[in-house]
Amino acid sequence: MSVWQLLAVGLLMLLGVIGVLIPGVPGQAIVWAAAAWWALSDTTGLAWAVLAGATGVLLLSQALRPLLPRRPREAGVPRRTVYVGGAGGIVGFFVLPVMGAIAGFIGGIYLAERVRLGSHGAGRASTRTVMRAVGTPLLVELFACLLVFGGWLGALIAG
User: Fold this and answer.
1) How many CA atoms lie within 13 Å of 74's alpha carbon, on the beta-carbon side?
2) pLDDT tens across 1-51, in order?
3) What is the DSSP letter of 24?
4) N or C end: fewer C-beta atoms under 10 angstroms in the chain?
5) How far apart are CA 102 and CA 137, in angstroms?
6) Chain centroid to CA 20
């Protein structure tokens, strides 16, 4: 696979990760399609293993989706808060590989709510409310996509 194709696959995966944060965009499907494109072009055993792992992780994420609460309208969660949390999760994933996504996501939500509400106590209480309303399901989807993206990057570095 050429460098330009690898760059396109990486950008498509990044678009899918960002798409998880935007309502109506099938971010997980975009990430899986990018992994499939790469595996079909680079027919090594490692590429197929990454695709199989990606399929398993994303299917597990979809299976967990109905079990997780999602009530953004009732909680009055601003979209900006979710976007800042998502950006924090993406940055956290690359600063502290894998587990940094959780800390970055929650930290981003807290930061956005603290700025919006003006105090630590109100920001903390609002962060708890946001995480109950939309944070957990969104974090599961984002984490699954970031795991696939990280697996693909690891396979590129290793192979």
Assistant:
1) 7
2) 789 999 999 999 999 998 888 878 899 999 999 999 999 998 899 999 999
3) T
4) C
5) 12
6) 6
